[in-house]
Each structure stands twice: as C-alpha cells, then as structure tokens.
Specification:
19 helices, alpha/beta, 39 strands, eight-stranded parallel beta barrel, about 25% helix, single chain
Length: about 850
C-alpha cells in the first residue's frame, strides 16, 4: 500500500517537551533525557545517536528502572559494553535500561548513552518522543512517569545539499506567469463551460434571499440554507427580492452524467438545475464558491454555467487507526471536502496500531485494540506508539473509537453531503490490532469456554514464521488457513452492513486491504502448511489469492463488491483475474514511482479489466512532507508531495505525472513513457477515480490533518473534475509554458480565494516558504502566494512579523539570509540562504 522505506529524521531547533498525561499533582520521573544525533555514518547505513541521561532527583539512581520511548522504525546497533542498553520492543516502540555494569548515578550527574541506528535524521517529526519511566522492583513495574526530553539541533555539514534550496525555489517561482485579476468563475474545481449572461447588470444580494426547491431536493436546500446563513449571514425568507431555485433540468436538456448541473444567474434570480440530487448539490457548492471572499451586499455576474466531473470517484482517505481523531473532526473534514465536490471518504479505521470502530460481540476490538498505553503483555491495551501516550485511558491520539451510534450518525452526515463512506477492514496484513485483540479474547475465555475463546482467533500459536512487515512488525498478518479468521471477517462485515442499513445509507463495497503481506509470512505455521498441502499450494501468494477470492465471494452475499490495494490484483493467473475483476469496485494503485520501475502497475491492472482508483504516491500521498525542510512534518520514503505535484497528475498520462524525480531533479516528460505499458481502450474505461491518502504516523492533532491536506488536496480536486488540462498533449517548451500558466492561476485561486476562506473557518493550512537568491549583491525574494508578506533577517535570527519587509531587490552582503512568508495569521517555515 505504501511504505517500502523509512528515511528517518530530526530537528533544527531545540525542543523540550514533557511527555505523558498531566494529573492534579504532577509527579516527575527522577531523570531527564537529551537526545542528539551525530553527523557521520559510523558503519554503512548506521548513524550515531545518543541520549544524555541526567539524574534530576536528590537520591542516587540505581538499576531498578526502564525508560520507554517511541520513534519511527529503525534497527539499533550498540556496543555490548554500554552501561545502558537500548533496544527495540516492537516496531516503533523502544526501551532503555541499565546493564549489569551500570554504576549508580549520583544526583545531578549525567551519563551519555551512545548507540547506532539505521537512517540519518533530517526531519523534526521523526525524532524520539513519548518518553516515560517505570520503576522495576522484583520483576514488577511501577506507575509510569513522564520524562522530560530535549531534542538537540541537527548538525549538517557545509557541503551537504538539501532539496529544495531557497535559490531553487526562487527559480521555480519565477516561472509562474503573473495572472490578471481573477474572474468570479475561477473556482475549485474549475467549471467546464461558462457563458456570459446577456444582462448588463450584476445580481445583487443584500441581507435576504429566497429559496424554492423541488421536494426531491429538500436535503440540498436545507444544507444550502445553513451555509448561506453561516458563511454569508444571509437570511432565507419567502418574499426576498432575489430567489435561488433548485429544480430538475428541462426535459430537452440531457445530463452528461449523474453529477451534471446547470446554473443560470440572471438579474431576477439564480436557477440551479440537474437530473439528480447530487447534481443539485454540486450546483449549490458552485454558488457558495462564487460568493467566497464577499461581504454584503453580495454580487454575482450574470452567467450560465454547465458543469460536471470527468471521473466519478474523487476521494480522500484518512487513517484514524494510527492516530485517532474524533467524529466531530471527521464531520468537519467531510464538510470541507464535499464543498470541493469530492464524493468519497475512505474510512481507514483499522491497522496495526489501532481498531477504531465498535463491533457488537467483539468488544475486545475496542477495549484492547482502540487503546494504547503502558503494558508488558498487551492483554488490556496495545503498546504505545507514535506518541499516543502511555495512559490507555487518557484523551490522546493513541486512544479512541467510534461507537456504533457515532458511526451511523457520521454515515448520515456524509450522505447528506453526497459523500460515500467506504470502510476498510485491513486484512490479512496490517492487522496487528485485531490479532492482539482476539488473543486477549482468547485469554479471557480459554479457561471457561474454550470454544468461545477460539471462535474468532486470528493467529496460530504454533506459528514460527519469521518476517518483517513494511512498518517493522513481526506479528501483524492474519492466519488465512484458520476457519476462525473467516468467522471474524464475516462477523465484522455483517455488523458493518447492519450499521449502513440502520443509517439508511447505501453500501456498495468494502475495502479489504490486501496489501503488504511480507515475505516469510505463514511459512512457519503448521496450520498453513497442512492447508497448502491439502490444496496443492506451493507458495504464500496462493494463500493470499485464496483469501481475497474467498472474501470477494462472501461479500456477494450482501450484494457487495470488494475493493483492495493494488496487491489484491497482482500476480494472479488469468482465471483468477477474470473472477476478481467482475467482483471488484476498485483497485487502489499507489506504487507509481518511476525510479522503482513500478509506475506501469495502474495501467497493467486496468488493462486486465479491473476498475482502478489512482492513488499515486508521488502525487496524492498527503502524509509525505511538502518538501525536505527539516521543520516540515511528514514522511519522505517516496520523495515529497506538495500542491504542485498533486496538480500535475494526469490520469490518462500517468508517466508524465511526475515532473521531477524523488529528489527534485526535472525529468524529460517527452520520453517518460517510452517503452512502457500503454493504456488500452478498455483500460481507459476502467480508470474510475483518484484518491488522496493521509496515513497518520506523524499526526498528533487534527490541526496536522488539515495542514497536510490544505492546500495539497486542491490539485486532486482539480484533476478529478477536469482530467484533460490544456498542457496534457503538448510537449517541450509549449507544454512547460502552458503548465506554468495553469499553475500560476492555481496559486492565484489558492491565495486569493481559498486561504482567506480557510482562515475564516478555522481550517489550518500550510504556507510555502519563500524563494531567495542574491544576484550582483542584491537580495531577491518571491512566493506564489499573493497577498503574503516576506520578512527577512541578515543577522542569523529567525524572522518575525516585526522583521524587515522585503518589497523589492535590496543590497545585501550578509553571509546568511533567513526569510519567512506571513499571511492570514500563518507563517511558513524558514528559508535559509547561505552565501557560497
């Protein structure tokens, strides 16, 4: 599904945090920690790390303790003589403890604990976190206590280049043409057809507006009424001078598809017509977008708009398994993505690190699998991770789930806004939370009701398989030879189906995951070996194939199709492909990195007859950092993704969707698809949608969900609605000019319309850091964000709102220039330009 490699990172500023939860009387641990990373590669692939352990108590520190912490996965190498051992507990959870040669540490004294880790750190969001202390006496552990952790600045050699450099940003920004005043119809997504009205005067709406609607569109009218009041303080009354009419299309007008709508703004009112409620909803969102940024009296140009999407599926996936977010936050996300006419929420509620949906009859999924905290046996909760805290009862991102009633309410809320919620039950891989939960269930009943204990077990106690998953787990794969695994899946599916039925919301597919089963899984399981022998199987892929075909068949009992990540459609014989592609709603293709020679996969799968959702990692993975700046949160295993990369994605020219390689070097688009799989006519018909993914390893609060999504999502918004931009079939310099022109318009709309709207609605968003260069002793700066201020310093200090404002080239002989972009009470990370 996503992670072939972790490139782990750190920080450029000292951070001091107190991890853990607060109580009315806060008790601190007797130690503090300072973490630092060395600059050199000690051994091939290994970099030196160190914790400075300081005794901040008034008594000597003995051997009766363990300190735990979280960090993205890495291997550890340490000298045997170290007095403090550092080792892996599980995937992203680590511990350190005194070795036999540890000497008591006097009050105020410090000890440097040195060890080596794979991967060098270049990002603040990947440093150690979540540190806590437990005492250990006679094999029993005490109450966890938070440990103060200080992160030292990362040190970089002078010769080390980091992409993107401020001068490269400057050059890139300069390529964007200046765009004249935006037209009122320049909205997201761009409308297909605009015909200026014949009326000379504009339509003016003052304090009131009328609203009439066909009974079939009562829901859309209700939401429009709420939005007009909340966003623009417009009261809907019966006798207003201007009325909005929602009705069916005239019989003589044929809708292009179910989401087609027409909007006519005339001097006497606004007419929105469509053949479906979804089309009407799209039209109302266009009306609200046309009003963005205005205050009463509101003015609309007379115009006729005819509009529809090119792709029927336009989605956003949010991972709430790794780091939880509330139903209220999810509703906020649904509301804003639906305003951009996205129509799918991919609900990633289960993974290795959490299960977030109540399933009646399987209480352990939430009593154990929805909680992370200090534990030595995971009988009551999962291990901590991703700084989700050590308290399994605390209100943190590590804990929480949606009750059955909350999920039903969310389904109805989303359906009102024409957003389908597609649930994903991760299986058979990425299933550790479910596996541990069902082990806890087994332990609960094994002595009183053995049959019940084994009823939904997902693992084989005799399994000696050795494998490491993409996220470094060694125990996260369901055993597909156990009948109880299928009882579990059938139970969960039946309960999910029942929730949709009670909500009165249609359900057409369930996403089964199907991805990233690592090599070695199942091979040490006696149950699997017997199963394979009985059926003449020779390899693990045949087990995966058996599982996905069996589950696809089971879903048919509910008139459901299956969905899955790309692995669910790879490596099968023709007969299996024919069986599965008739039962598939969508195969989600993510691995599109040209350097990995995997960018042909989506077209190969589409050509085999599967419906394909394009989830290109190098265009649509929101959790990849915007760029390599150390202060930019996010992952970087597949490069970087900003809003220009999502904007550049071409569904039917996928090889020309990556304008740079993973480290930012430009590629020759004219030869990018040479000798690669061509999309057939059948294959083209099977490209049904696009989707953005937001996995949550580096998310701690909902503000970071918004930061990663906005403005990055707007590229997908545009491309899902309009798949054929003007530059799609051009080449060479003409293509580059047309792309730059469209990208400049994109940024103008983002900065003039969307960012002010987000600011007014308390939606967090990201500002790009400015470009800088010095030419002939003059400092130049630029940004694609109109209306922002670039503030700079030349003395090495961090820019603030009170720093010098850059307005025009200015003489500069400083060796270091730092600058930030400020706009709408937001600020970018710092651009740092050093003179050679």
């Amino acid at each position: 599904m996503r992670y072939l490699l972790y490139c782990i990172v750190g920080t450029l500023c000292i951070l001091t945090v107190m991890t853990g939860c607060k109580s009315s009387v806060e008790v601190k641990s007797p130690v503090s920690l300072t973490w630092e990373m060395g600059t050199a590669e000690v051994k091939p692939g290994y970099y030196e790390n160190s914790f400075t352990l300081k005794n901040i108590s008034d008594t000597p520190l003995g051997k009766d303790w363990i300190i735990y912490y979280s960090q993205l996965p890495r291997e550890i190498l340490q000298e045997e003589s170290s007095p403090v051992r550092v080792e892996l507990v599980n995937a992203n959870f680590f511990r350190m403890y005194p070795a036999e040669n540890f000497k008591p540490l006097a009050p105020g004294d410090s000890l440097i604990v040195t060890f080596c880790c794979t991967n060098g750190l270049t990002k603040i969001s990947h440093a150690p976190e979540g540190t806590y202390w437990v005492s250990q006496v006679d094999g029993k552990q005490g109450t966890p206590l938070p440990v103060e952790l200080t992160i030292h600045p990362l040190l970089f050699s002078e010769s080390e280049s980091r992409y993107p450099a401020p001068d490269k940003i400057y050059v890139s920004n300069q390529l964007l043409f200046n765009i004249a005043q935006l037209r009122q119809t320049d909205i997201f997504p761009s409308v297909k057809k605009v015909i200026p009205g014949s009326d000379k005067e504009s339509l003016v709406i003052k304090e009131m507006v009328g609203l009439t609607f066909h009974d079939d569109f009562a829901n859309e009218a209700k939401i429009l009424k709420e939005k007009l009041a909340n966003l623009y303080n417009l009261e809907v009354v019966a006798d207003a001078p201007v009325t909005v009419h929602l009705d069916y299309l005239p019989k003589q007008e044929v809708a292009v598809n179910d989401e087609y709508y027409r909007m006519d703004v005339k001097a006497d009112g606004i007419h929105i017509s469509a053949s479906t409620a979804h089309g009407i909803f799209n039209g109302t969102q266009t009306l609200l977008s046309l009003l963005k940024g205005q205050k009463a009296p509101l003015t609309l140009e007379t115009v006729s708009i005819q509009d529809y999407p090119d792709l029927p599926y336009r989605g956003q996936m949010l991972d709430i398994a790794r780091n939880f977010t509330t139903v209220e936050n999810m509703k906020k996300l649904v509301d804003v993505i639906s305003s951009y006419k996205l129509n799918v929420l991919h609900f990633h509620f289960s993974d290795d690190e959490g299960w977030r949906l109540e399933i009646p009859g399987l209480e352990e999924l939430t009593s154990v699998g929805a909680r992370r905290g200090h534990t030595t046996d995971e009988r009551e909760c999962l291990y901590p991770g991703y700084d989700g805290n050590y308290d399994p009862n605390a209100n943190t991102s590590g804990n929480g789930y949606y009750t059955r009633e909350e999920f039903i309410d969310l389904l109805r809320y989303a359906a009102e806004r024409h957003v389908r919620v597609i649930p994903e039950i991760e299986s058979p891989g990425h299933a550790r939370a479910a596996i541990v939960s069902m082990k806890a269930r087994y332990n609960k009943y094994v002595n009183t009701d053995p049959e019940k204990a084994n009823e939904y077990l997902l693992s084989d106690a005799q399994d000696t398989s050795r494998y490491v998953s993409a996220q470094s787990y060694t125990d996260n794969i369901m055993n597909v030879a156990l009948p109880s695994t299928y009882r579990f899946m059938e139970k969960v599916i039946s309960e999910v189906v029942a929730m949709y039925k009670e909500a009165g919301v249609p359900l057409s597919t369930i996403h089964l995951g199907g991805d990233e089963v690592p090599e070695g899984a199942w091979m040490g399981s006696p149950v699997c070996q017997a199963f394979m022998n009985e059926r003449g199987m020779t390899n693990a892929h045949e087990l995966s194939e058996y599982y996905i075909t069996k589950m696809a068949g089971y879903l048919q009992k509910f008139d459901l199709q299956f969905s899955g990540w790309q692995e669910a459609a790879l490596g099968h014989p023709e007969a299996t492909d024919q069986y599965l592609n008739q039962r598939a709603a969508g195969i989600y293709c993510w691995n599109t990195v040209p350097e990995w020679e995997s960018d042909e996969i989506p077209y190969q799968i589409a050509n085999k007859g599967y419906p394909v959702i394009l989830c290109n990692v190098n265009n649509f993975y929101m959790d990849l950092a915007y760029d390599s700046h150390p202060d930019e949160r996010g992952l970087l295993w597949a490069g970087y993704v900003d809003e220009s990369k999502s904007f550049s994605m071409l569904p039917y020219s996928i090889y020309r969707s990556s304008r740079t390689d993973m480290v930012g070097n430009p590629v020759n688009l004219d030869i990018a698809g040479k000798e690669k799989t061509t999309l057939t006519a059948l294959g083209k018909e099977r490209i049904v949608g696009v989707q953005a993914q937001l996995f949550a390893e580096t998310i701690r609060e909902f503000q970071w969900v918004e930061y990663y999504i906005f403005p990055k999502i707007l590229g997908l918004v545009e491309r899902g609605w309009n798949t054929h931009p003007a530059w799609e079939n051009l080449s060479g310099e003409k293509e580059q000019q047309a792309f730059n022109r469209d990208l400049a318009l994109f940024y103008s709309k983002v900065s003039d319309r969307e960012m002010p709207y987000w600011a007014s609605r308390s939606i967090n968003f990201r500002l790009p850091h400015p470009g800088l260069c010095i030419k002939e002793g003059m400092l130049y700066a630029n940004t694609p964000i109109r209306g922002g201020e670039i503030r700079y310093t030349t003395d090495g200090t961090e820019p603030t709102l009170h720093s010098e404002l850059w307005q025009a080239p200015v003489a500069c002989d400083a060796t270091t220039v730092k600058a930030k972009l400020f706009y709408l009470n937001k600020e970018s990370v710092t651009s740092t330009l050093k003179k050679n």
